Amino acid sequence: MSKIETHINRLFRDIPDSKRKEEIMLEISQDLSDKVADLVLQGQTEDEAIQKTIEDFGDIDDIEEELVGSAQLIENKNIGLSLAFSIWGGVIITALFIFINLYYTPESIWFVYPVFAVIWWPMSMFFYWYQRKSGQSIAFPYSVAAFVLIVGLLLFINFYYTPHTIWFIYPVFAVVWWPIATYFNQLSQRYRKDDFLE
Amino acid sequence: MISSDIIRGHLDAIILRMIYEKDCYGYEISKEIASRTGKEFQIKEATLYAVFQRLEKKAFIESYLGNVSNGGRRRYYSITASGRAYLEEEIENWHKARDIINIFMEGLE
């Protein structure tokens, strides 16, 4: 390995491996070798030429930022695939439970419980995907979606088994603190940011 | 050798212009920039390759491997149609900004 390649390897040491990174390292060592050859032609010694080339190269941070950007693009695509998979998986499992329930035990409805559990999978994937795509915090919208889901389950249990006694508002009272808390947390963070900007 | 924010803000356009003239590889561009400016401006290679990444991601340029030359293959860059459109837009923006700045920067002793 030439001195130039050694130097480039050291510069790129902390950047995660990717095909892109390898291509760039190859390209840079090719170009820098050209530069060293040119400087030697102009009368410098090989060591001087290498020294100057390495000094001229500059800071790796610029390239790192762009490389990490490319890597993130690929990662977001993978998250999109996981989201699609979770939606399809959720739909198929839901359909299966509804079928089993209605076919074997049509007199009692219980598919709501496994479906309630399964739905968190695509829902969480969706919010994760959205957060990565938009860069915004999803704490509040996620808590609202979860609140709706839990309240839906409580309503079902209440009115399916004990339609003459209304008790669901008590657990709802407990759960409602979740979206309220994330809402005010979001507000206070926005104010803090505004203060900072002023 | 000057290192000004004004130049730094137009590096994408400067490098697009070089690729617009003809397909070239990294070292060729940095050599050409140094020689055209009489070494008043020299681009750091790290910056140059970061700009390549950015322009390629925006699909303003494309790269391909050239023929084998002394011991390796060079990566060449060529400009795309949207790269040309972007360059034209940047040149127009520059003319407008230059005219405005000139109003305040010229005419004093």
Task: Explain how this protein is built.
The complex is a heterodimer of chains A (198) and B (109). By secondary structure, chain A is an all-alpha fold. Chain A has two domains: 3-58, no CATH class; 77-197. In chain A, 82% of the residues lie in helices and 0% in strands. In chain A, helix 1 (3-11) runs antiparallel to helix 2 (19-41), helix 2 crosses helix 3 and helix 5 runs antiparallel to helix 6 (139-161). The mean pLDDT of chain A is 88. Chain B has a single domain, classed as Winged helix-like DNA-binding domain superfamily/Winged helix DNA-binding domain (Arc Repressor Mutant, subunit A, Orthogonal Bundle). In chain B, strand 2 (61-69) and strand 3 form a beta hairpin. With 109 residues, chain B is an alpha+beta fold. Chain B has helices at 5-8, 11-21, 26-36, 45-57, 81-105; strands spanning 24-25, 61-69, 72-79. In chain B, helix 2 (11-21) crosses helix 4 and helix 2 packs across helix 5 (81-105). Chain B is built from five helices and three strands. Chain B is globular and about 55 Å long. Classes of the chains: A mainly alpha (198), B alpha+beta (109). The interface between A and B is medium-sized, with 27 and 21 residues.
Structural class of chain B: alpha+beta
Q: Overall 3D geometry of chain B? A: globular
Count of DSSP helices of chain A?
Answer: 8
Largest sheet of chain A: none
Strand order, main sheet of chain B: write it out.
Answer: 1-3-2
Task: Give a short summary of the structure.
Chain A is mostly helical. Chain A is built from 8 helices and no strands.
What key phrases describe this protein's structure?
heterodimer, A: mainly alpha, 2 domains, elongated, B: alpha+beta, Arc Repressor Mutant, subunit A, three-stranded antiparallel β-sheet, 5 helices, 3 strands, 17% strand
Protein topology:
The complex is a heterodimer of chains A (about 200) and B (about 110).
Chain A: H1 3-11, H2 19-41, H3 46-57, H4 61-104, H5 112-134, H6 139-161, H7 169-175, H8 177-197
Helix pairs in contact in A: 1-2, 2-3, 4-5, 5-6, 6-8
Chain B: H1 5-8, H2 11-21, E1 24-25, H3 26-36, H4 45-57, E2 61-69, E3 72-79, H5 81-105
Antiparallel strand pairs in B: 1-3, 2-3
